[in-house]
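Forum > Structural Biology > Help requests

Title: Can anyone predict the 3D structure of Thioesterase?

Hi all, first post here. I have the sequence for Thioesterase but no way to get a structure on my laptop. I'd be grateful if someone could post the structure tokens.
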Amino acid sequence: MARISIDIPEKQIYSTDISVRISDINFAGHLAHDAILTLTHECRARFFHSHGWTEINVEGKGIVVSDVAIVYKSEAFFPDDLMMQLFVDNVSKKSLEMVYVITHKNGGKEIARAKTAIVFFDYAERKPCPIPDVFLKVLI
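Reply #1:
Sure, ran it for you. Structure tokens for Thioesterase below:
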């Protein structure tokens, strides 16, 4: 299988600190692969919350995640303090990519990169919809 590569876009829109929880640890004693995806969701939810939105209500429109990619770089352990940076890329009429860079807060060693394709969705109509202008303004 070919290796996945995730480039870091120029436009950072958010960052947050988070600690590795004991429930994030796998049988090998380090941060579990599935916990990386959970951390990206936490980062995204905090970003939305920081603007008074939820993932199902940005001016009445929500989002769905249409695909995910993760590249693992190094280990993290309980209770390491991490920094998560959120970037955006490939913004189109109805979708965008969110790129997450997870590093150790002390020392800055990179743990993982992840990318989620986000499609804005009208839950009342049950179909994709344009990205709300209020959301686009945050990206400028």
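The domain at 11-139 is CATH 3.10.129.10 (Thiol Ester Dehydrase; Chain A). The chain has a mean pLDDT of 97.
Shout if anything looks off.
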